[in-house]
Every structure is written in C-alpha cells, then in structure tokens.
Design goal:
single chain; alpha+beta; Signal recognition particle alu RNA binding heterodimer, srp9/1; 2,3-Dihydroxybiphenyl 1,2-Dioxygenase, domain 1; 4-stranded mixed sheet; 5 helices; globular
C-alpha cells in the first residue's frame, strides 16, 4: 500500500521500489528496507519514527471526523506515474491541483497527496516490489479519472500545451456538462467537465436516460 504521507526519509534508494516496514511474526523488517535501499536501517529507527501505540477506533477531534482527516475525501484514488515529479507539476499547472505533501526516498516519489478542491488524489513512482506499475496506454485504459472544474475549455488548452493528447474536444452534453476527454503525458485518461446548466441530479439523469434510448434504438 502507499506510504503514510506524514512519514519522510532522506535516505537514498539504490533503485525505484520499496516495501513499507511492518512487523512479521514479531520480527522487525528493517532489514527489508536495508537490502532494498543499501542503507543501514535499524529497528531503532522505526521505533523513533513509527508510532508504537495501538489505536483501533475512528478518531474525531480538531483535525479528524469519524476517522477521516479534515480535507480528505473518503474515496481517494492512487495512480502510478513516471516520472512522478513531472506529473505533480503537470497536475498543478494544468489542473490547478495543490500539493499537500510529498514523501520522497531519494529521487523516488513514494507518496504524494494532491488537493483538487473537492477531491483528493495520491500518486507515486512505480514500485515493483509493491506491484505498482505504470499503465500501458497502448493496450487501452481500464479506468478513467473525472475532474470537475470551472473552465473545461481553459483546462483542456493548458493540458494540450503541456503535452496531453486530446481524445475529444470540449462539447456540451445532455447531462448539463461540458466535457472533454484527454490522455495526460503519463498515460492517464481523464474526463474534464464543467456543469454549465444548474440541473438537479434527477433531471440530469433523466436527460441521459432519454439520450441513451436514442443510442440503443
């Protein structure tokens, strides 16, 4: 799983890829990280940097409600991109994302958190030891991200200028959305949308249903 964003290390890896330390059968697995990164990492290091307190109930307080940190969304996609540093710059400049936190191991981005306003996204470089690999756009896409914004035309043009491939130019759909479809320079497919009609969810769904009937006729 991706690394906790609050934990950092300035140790330099020998190669991309990592496995987060955890207890296995009561044995500290610092040796796993040591072998991967060719550094001397000891159990004492993790005792210093990792919490040893065991909490099992959802926290609520100044910074957390019902186990969800304030500012986070309950569903947060994680994507694998390469190089992740360039992807962070692309999503910041083209989509207006705010970088919340980046955890690096040398030149490897192990975990980055981006805030898109009302949605969060995390990303990392490939980590083969955790079975996190980059997508192969030549074989098609098994998922697509959706981004609502205030100006789909402007975002699409900024993405184009930054190297994205525009699959579908901006157009207005019966749902009340103006949208475009792009593939970013890192192989991730996006639907970029702006709601241009103030419709209720029911009315938007009704329109789409009526449109779908005409497509299947």
């Amino acid at each position: 799983m991706p690394a906790p964003s609050a934990k950092r290390s300035n140790r330099t890896p020998a190669a991309p890829g990592l496995r987060w330390p955890r207890e296995r059968g009561g044995v500290c697995t610092a040796s796993v990280m040591s072998q991967k990164y060719k550094t001397v990492l000891t159990c004492a290091f993790y005792a210093e940097h990792m919490s040893t307190e065991i909490h099992t109930s959802a926290a609520s307080g100044t910074h957390t409600t019902g186990g969800v940190p304030h500012g986070s969304t309950s569903l947060t996609p994680h994507i694998v991109v390469s190089p992740a540093e360039e992807a962070i710059r692309f999503y910041s400049s083209s989509f207006g994302a705010r970088v919340v936190d980046v955890t690096r191991f040398g030149d490897v981005v192990a975990h980055a958190v981006l805030d898109f306003g009302t949605g969060m996204l995390t990303l990392s470089d490939p980590m083969e030891s955790n079975a996190l690999i980059v997508p192969d756009p030549e074989r098609g896409h098994d998922y697509s991200m959706a981004l609502y914004c205030a100006d789909v035309d402007g975002v699409t043009e900024r993405a184009r200028a930054a190297g994205a491939t525009i699959r579908e130019e901006p157009s207005t759909f019966v749902s009340g959305d103006r949208f475009s479809s792009i593939v970013d320079p890192f192989g991730i497919r996006w639907s970029v949308m702006t709601r241009v009609e103030d419709l209720s969810p029911e009315e938007s769904a009704r329109r789409v249903e009526e449109w779908a009937k005409t497509q299947s006729a």
